[in-house]
Amino acid sequence: MGNARRAVAAGLVLGAGVCYCVYRLYRSRRAAGAAARPAQDGGLLPQVSGLSVLPSRAWGAPSSLHPDTDLPKSSSNLEAHHLQRLIHLLESTDDPLIQEQALVTLSNSAAFSVNQDIIRNLDGLSIIGRMLSDSIPKVKEKALNTLNNLSMNVKNQEEIKVYILQVCKEIELSPLNSDLQLAGLRLLTNMSVTNDYHHMMTNAIPYFLHLLSEGNERTQIQVLKVLVNLSANPVMTRHLHSAQLDPAPSLLSLFDNGINKDILLRVLTFAANLNENMKNEEGIITQDRYSEDSIFFLLSGHSTQYAQKLLGLLHHQDKEVKGQAAKIITLQRGDIQSPNPLLLFC
């Protein structure tokens, strides 16, 4: 009987609206011990766009969240009492399929700023955050996607910050290039658009660099978004410069002419930010602070191979790439000083 119900639930998931599916699944789990509830959620069906989690790839951000950031898209909306039901459902059930669909619906609704506030005021952030401790990867992934969309609200970020260390650990423990790992990186991208929480990501920097050498292109792009945001903060320069590279050639390989342009532009921006911030207040480079296998020695002009790669990029077919390479070369020669670190807009 349980298998039949789950088969029916799967069919509903594929063919109906999210909230209707959640309601039917929830009702079927409770039918054995009590009479079925009246169908009060039928009005949600025409308001929900579908089952897919928001891709969070639309670029552009609120004025207070301006660097590299991921924005959601949606064409549907929910009312406050619907959101309240979903949050209560998420809190009261231990069925992973119901949890996933409730999180998908909350994620889609978080495309609207008014819903971001409603969910926070209903204590939804803490309830969603508890799902990060769930042992089922898909539930954790959906929770991270939901928090990612909700993090486009500054007040929400003040509550979501308590999960940053847990998210950093989850990224490290997740399978390489997995959807769970990418969901964590997307959340950190949004949480790093201001300087407020950068210090909470310091210990994760070595693993971010590891992902640059071991991850696929999708992972490299996402972790570079985080690193670019961190590098735009002068306070983080020392932590980034002191990070050890093992092996160093893996980072150098990202400066090749044949590298994906999205990766190349970001790694050049990362290097340019560090070059602009690497001088102390007296304008003196404190190189004795760093070891020879650190990012500082690689990207501050001490590497002949790196210098040759930058010169080669001056002949790149893309004007942005050539411009960034020229800017780094000029900065290393000390010909100009820029008052602000570069910010990467996509």
TrEMBL record:
Places the protein is found: Mitochondrion outer membrane
Membrane topology: Single-pass membrane protein
Source species taxonomy: Eukaryota, Metazoa, Chordata, Craniata, Vertebrata
SUPFAM superfamilies per the UniProt record, alphabetical: ARM repeat
Record-given protein name: Armadillo repeat containing 10
Keyword entries, A-Z: Membrane, Mitochondrion, Mitochondrion outer membrane, Signal-anchor, Transmembrane, Transmembrane helix
Annotated ranges, domain Armadillo repeat-containing: 78-299
Family of this protein: Belongs to the eutherian X-chromosome-specific Armcx family.
SMART domains: ARM (SM00185)
Gene3D superfamilies: Leucine-rich Repeat Variant
Any one Pfam family match given in the protein's UniProt record, by short name: Arm_2
GO cellular component terms, semicolon-separated: endoplasmic reticulum; mitochondrial outer membrane
Superkingdom to which the source organism belongs: Eukaryota
